[in-house]
Design goal:
Helix content is 44%, strand content 12%. The protein is α/β, with parallel strands linked by helices. The protein has 2 domains: 164 residues, Rossmann fold, CATH 3.40.50.620; 77 residues, Alpha-Beta Plaits, CATH 3.30.70. A 4-stranded parallel beta sheet has the order 3-2-1-4, sandwiched between helices. Strands 5-6-7 form a 3-stranded mixed beta sheet, with helices on one face. Strand 5 and strand 6 form a beta hairpin. The longest helix has 20 residues. The two termini are 31 Å apart.
Length: 273
């Protein structure tokens, strides 16, 4: 992965981030183990020490491999991690998967993190949105604003590539990690989200991950049609492993599986929203 970054500008933003966090005294970071939240947590812990903790929500919306990686990172870095069990299907309006689903879910999930932070006597909750996230459809940001959640990376105008660059500079293993997102985003808006669908998405994306695909999405359209997005250079890996994909999909009742020739791109499900 080649990162063309103005290192001086990125360094200045890093200083701004540290100053921003230092002013907050104590923070609970909504942690997923991804590029952004790992970088934010690392800098918060460097700045605030034990006054920075990580809170991760354990739910079927997050792949188990990501939760395990997040737990390992906190153990290695000696950062306090609180794992909160969360059932998205208990949230009214979540399974219906309307265009406001992300907002509804985020508000409930962040409410749990706020409650956790309050019990610990922590004043602020932070999340990892960055400058680039303003360029896509992000209904969940409405919940972030309403609840008073802080977005330090966004406030200091750090882009995704700058975060990757700075992560590499401080030897974070996540600097070149593919971008992941909540598994509910793989289900076409308006189609019901079920636990079975989330298990299928996670299982198929685990297959793509184990095939060595560097960036991928397994997207569901209806109850029997799936679309795979990977980078064009990984098309051959999918073709080589297609029998495993078809076999797994058949177990879940998916009759039609396609490889999207346009390749992986963020927000492709948002075109219909």
């Amino acid at each position: 992965m080649v990162l063309e970054i103005d290192s001086l500008a990125a360094g200045k933003k890093l200083t701004l981030l540290k100053n921003y966090l230092a002013e907050k005294k104590s923070v609970a970071v909504a942690f997923s183990g991804g590029v952004d939240s790992t970088f934010l947590l690392k800098i918060a812990h460097e700045t605030l020490g034990e006054n920075a903790v990580a809170v991760i929500l354990s739910s079927p919306l997050i792949p188990r491999r990501e939760i395990k990686a997040a737990e390992k990172f906190c153990a290695d870095e000696k950062i306090k991690l609180i794992c909160v069990d969360s059932d998205p299907f208990s949230i009214e309006g979540f399974p219906e998967n309307t265009p406001e689903r992300c907002y509804i879910c985020k508000k409930a999930m962040f409410g749990k993190i706020i409650s956790c932070a309050e019990k610990l006597g922590i004043e602020n909750v932070c999340e990892g949105s960055n400058e680039d996230d303003t360029k896509d459809y992000r209904p969940g940001m409405k919940a972030v604003r309403e609840l008073g959640i802080l977005s330090p990376l966004l406030e200091t105008h750090l882009s995704k590539n700058e975060i990757r660059f700075l992560s590499k500079q401080i030897n974070l293993p996540t600097w070149n990690l593919p971008g992941f997102a909540c598994l509910a985003t793989r289900v076409q808006t308006g189609e019901e989200i079920t636990l079975k669908k989330l298990h299928l998405v996670e299982s198929c994306e685990n297959l793509l991950y184990n095939m060595g695909c560097s960036q991928f999405r397994f997207r569901l359209h209806g109850n029997d049609f799936a679309r795979i997005e990977v980078l064009p250079e990984d098309f051959s890996k999918v073709m080589e492993g297609r029998r495993d994909i078809i076999s797994l999909c058949s177990e879940f009742g998916i009759k039609n599986v396609t490889l999207d020739l346009a390749g992986y791109r963020t927000g492709s499900m948002n075109r219909s929203v």
